[in-house]
């Protein structure tokens, strides 16, 4: 009973220590590495541990088949973990990079997204007269009344129907969305059934090449241009808002995008909106709106990636345990000899741990390189808050690679600890009799 309780307590403490290690910032990891290096160089036990580790590492080529189990297993964990987290980071970065702090998005009061917002046509002139609204060179307010229609297009991957956002913008639409630039073809002409498509949408959905004809809303639309914005708008199709409204029989708008006179202008605009009893509309910056959309899905992806990585890590730990137990058994006579000539238990434990951590480090680097080579800037799409696809790219950042490396070293720590303790506790007389 005591043995079981002790094993349970040891496991719990090990899990807690592993979690603390993974959460440790780089400064903490550097401090641990410096302390360990100083101990290895300056103390007698440390120098003995370093000498014993050199012997074990020198024999790795003779055990390369078994050692590769640790490297491959940990590489798989790190690769999957980094890829999953890179997906969440890419989605979050795409939406967080959409909009700015001087552009306002106006929705109906209480609406969480454009799809459930309604703004009547008689509200638009009232909004355009509010203080803080920027004006163009012609003196007209920079405000774009917009519609968002979800349409079905076949995916580039397998041809299945996917939801794509078909946005109608007003006359000032290009001015209030300054990040959107035509990179091929030309802008659509108001009053005609012409569309321009985002580069992201063009790469993910079929039929969006320049000059193609699309059947949308029982009407024929011609693709006349391609635009780039580097944000979530690249997932969309754009056209004239009045043409879109007549095609889908939409009598009201869904949102207003308003260019304000800087951040101070936005504050004045928002305050004036709140004070006007005729307008029951919500206002926030476009940056805040899209960042809010990214939060929930990015969190889900991060949690899912961590859970999958943890499950795979358990398998990698068992692989490391089996490999290192076998290595300790194979080197029983060698370890016993070292202990007989003066190597204490601590140097033996540290030597076996250093060997395992080296293999884990190799696995972590391999997994990170594979994740970076395969997934960095890999473009995919997923369903966003408006029930339409958002095209984004995986982002394998240095922070994610560093996190994956810490996971690898944590797995090596757990996988090598118990075999190392067994090596230190192995009776010398018994070990010397083993072949």
Automatic annotation (TrEMBL):
Subcellular location: Cell membrane
Coiled coil: none
Residue ranges of domain MacB-like periplasmic core in the record: 69-273
Record-annotated membrane-spanning stretches: 5-24, 30-52, 64-87, 303-328, 340-373, 400-421
Domain ABC3 transporter permease C-terminal, chain residue ranges per copy: 307-427
Listed GO MF terms: transmembrane transporter activity
Membrane topology: Multi-pass membrane protein
Main location group: membrane
Classification of source organism: Bacteria, Pseudomonadati, Pseudomonadota, Gammaproteobacteria, Lysobacterales
Entry GO terms, CC: plasma membrane
Swiss-Prot/TrEMBL keywords: Cell membrane, Membrane, Transmembrane, Transmembrane helix
InterPro entries assigned to the protein according to its UniProt record, in alphabetical order: ABC3_permease_C (IPR003838), MacB_PCD (IPR025857), Macrolide_Exporter_MacB (IPR050250)
Biological source species: Pseudoxanthomonas spadix (strain BD-a59)
Name this polypeptide is given: ABC transporter permease
């Amino acid at each position: 009973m005591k043995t079981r309780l002790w094993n349970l307590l040891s496991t719990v403490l090990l899990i807690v220590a592993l979690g603390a290690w993974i959460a440790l910032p780089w400064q903490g990891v550097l401090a641990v590495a410096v302390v360990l290096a100083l101990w290895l160089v300056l103390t007698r036990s440390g120098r003995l541990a370093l000498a014993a580790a050199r012997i074990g590492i020198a024999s790795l080529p003779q055990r390369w088949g078994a050692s590769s189990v640790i490297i491959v297993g940990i590489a798989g964990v790190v690769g999957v973990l980094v890829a999953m987290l890179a997906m969440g980071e890419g989605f979050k970065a795409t939406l967080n990079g959409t909009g700015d702090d001087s552009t306002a998005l106006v929705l109906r009061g209480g609406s969480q997204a454009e799809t459930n917002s309604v703004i009547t046509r008689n509200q638009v002139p009232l909004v355009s007269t509010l203080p803080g609204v920027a004006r163009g060179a012609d003196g007209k307010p920079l405000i774009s009344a917009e519609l968002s229609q979800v349409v079905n297009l076949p995916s580039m991957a397998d041809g299945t129907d996917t939801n794509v956002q078909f946005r109608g913008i007003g006359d000032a639409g290009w001015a209030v969305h300054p990040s959107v630039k035509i990179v091929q073809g030309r802008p659509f002409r108001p009053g005609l059934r012409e569309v321009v498509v985002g580069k992201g949408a063009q790469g993910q959905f079929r039929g969006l090449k320049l000059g193609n004809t699309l059947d949308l809303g029982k009407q024929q639309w011609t693709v006349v241009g391609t635009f780039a914005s580097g944000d979530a708008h690249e997932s969309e199709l754009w056209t004239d808002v009045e043409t879109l409204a007549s095609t889908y029989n939409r009598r009201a708008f869904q949102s207003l995008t308003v260019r304000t006179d800087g951040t101070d202008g936005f504050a004045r605009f928002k305050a004036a909106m709140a004070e006007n009893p005729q307008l029951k509309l919500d206002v926030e910056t476009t940056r805040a709106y899209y960042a809010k959309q990214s939060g929930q899905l990015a969190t889900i992806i991060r949690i899912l990636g961590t859970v999958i990585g943890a499950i795979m890590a358990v398998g990698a730990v068992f692989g490391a345990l089996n490999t290192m137990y076998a290595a300790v058994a194979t080197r029983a006579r060698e370890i016993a000899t070292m202990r007989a000539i003066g190597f204490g238990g601590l140097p033996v434990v540290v030597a076996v741990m250093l060997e395992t951590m080296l293999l884990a480090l190799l696995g972590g680097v391999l997994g990170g390189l594979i994740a970076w080579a395969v997934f960095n800037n890999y473009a995919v799409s997923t369903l966003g808050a408006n029930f339409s696809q958002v095209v984004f790219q995986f982002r394998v950042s240095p922070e994610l690679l560093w996190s994956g490396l810490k996971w690898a070293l944590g797995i090596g720590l757990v996988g090598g600890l118990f075999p190392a303790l067994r090596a230190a506790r192995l009776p010398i007389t018994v070990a010397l009799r083993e072949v």
